[in-house]
Amino acid sequence: MAVQPSGGGAGALQRQQETSSLADVVGTILDKGIVIDVFARVSLVGIELLRVDARIVVASIESYLTFAEAANRLEIGTNEPGQLTDVVGDVSEAGSKGVSEGKTKGAIEAGVDKLSDYIAPGDEEPEDQEQEAGRPARGRQESRR
Amino acid sequence: MNDNEQYIWVYGVVPAGAALDELERRDQLPEVRVVEMGDLGAIVGTAPRNDAKATRDQALAHARVLEAATADAPVIPFRFGTMVPGGDEQVGSDLLDAHHDEFAQVLERFRDCVQLTVKANYDEEPLLREILEEEPEIAELQRQSRQSGEVTRDVKVRLGELISAAVQQRRELDATDILERLKPVSRAAVDDQLESEFMALNAPFLVERDRIQEFEDAVAQVADERQERMHLTLLGPMPVYNFIDLEEPAWA
User: Fold this and answer.
1) Does the distance separating the beta carbons of B161 and A138 come in below 8 Å?
2) CB atoms within 10 A of CB A88
């Protein structure tokens, strides 16, 4: 129909050929892929944080509150909007951006943002040592401005 | 790694001699090489430093290298974090040679297939309106909680719990429906963990290479038909991450 599967933008389907964000990666590769037992997987700093942040527990108190807040954000003619804003204001701060953009993606990305604030202050300025430490030159392009 | 011991990072295993053009072509990939032994090749590279930033960069790199390789050849994706102590020689002997038969079998099993993952997410507002319309009890509770100004946590939890159950009911119907629609154009599918409250379906599909376009068209049509209340994302082609442990992945 109107959809160009490999295009992007037009149509109801969002087509994503290449993984481009950490948020996608977490769900795709963690805990997946073949395991060769003899090669003890060296524990990697930061992996556990990624994993914890990516896991959203469905049917938990937290998810109930998410639903309740989403329901309370709905604009319905019979309500007085004046009072509502106060109630919804602080509880929906994190999710409010998601209302127009698609809440679900927002939640995951927000998690990853939060994570990067937490574990990697000053991430944006790659240090000179990085290259010496054997980081492939091409892989660094992403962190350049 | 900063230790004295040297590690080689393993991305995945491909048939020896595979022309991995896409891997050469794509930008923003780390430097990788293929170590060959007999009829197998291992895509390997330098292990990252062991800190959080390097780990996160490597996570993205791992996925992107494997995707690029999948464009041209069957790939056995390795669990993130797999490293072989030593050098290329050990990769050949301790990995490829020592596990030859297992790798050869897996490559053969998935020779013609890739993974494409369908993620369906409800649009928050239409879904909630639908639920409020169809479930008077929930609508009443929502009305009360909004009128009372100060909403207690208990009321919110109760309201959320009811909505959660209503969403789950719809999720089961919609997920089954979407899976059924895509069954004829795929070889298998699995139900992966949901990533958010408003997700309806997170399903990796095993799709034959020569039917990728057909599958994409079917997903596009499914998306079109449902755009009033959900949006779909299609990721891939990627390696068969979710099927690698299955002996005979197939629809029941």
Assistant:
1) no
2) 20
